[in-house]
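Hi there,

I know you've been waiting on this one. I reran it after we fixed the sequence typo, so this is the corrected version. Both the input and the resulting structure follow.
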Amino acid sequence: MTTDSTQETCILIRPRSPAAARENVRAVLRQGHPHAADMAVADAVLVTSELVTNALRHGGGLRGFHCRVRYDHVEITVEDGSDAVPVVRARTGLLVSGGHGWPTVCRLADDVTVTRLPGGGKRIVALVPLTA
């Protein structure tokens, strides 16, 4: 992790689990934005958990993970091995499990981009606000 005069803090790792990714985001936020509101940190951690879980469960495995604090946002980048772009699944009932992750990511992030990678797979970048 590094910090410079532009108040950027980042980490580039390949966590082995969603729990490890969540802990890394917490560590980056403690160093790069120690005064972030508890709810903002919780949102960033939830977005991280959803993206990493989806990469492991549906995306052909986690190929890359990058977390960067930029002033009042945290940028969370996840790369996986699938070319399939996430979609919102149709809800068929109130008690149906699954399908909540991608809508949650899109709701909590100010911006989400999905880019197909030249060698296969995709990169998802979510920009999560750290201020109210």
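Quick highlight: Residues 38-57 form the longest helix (20 residues).

Best,
R. S.
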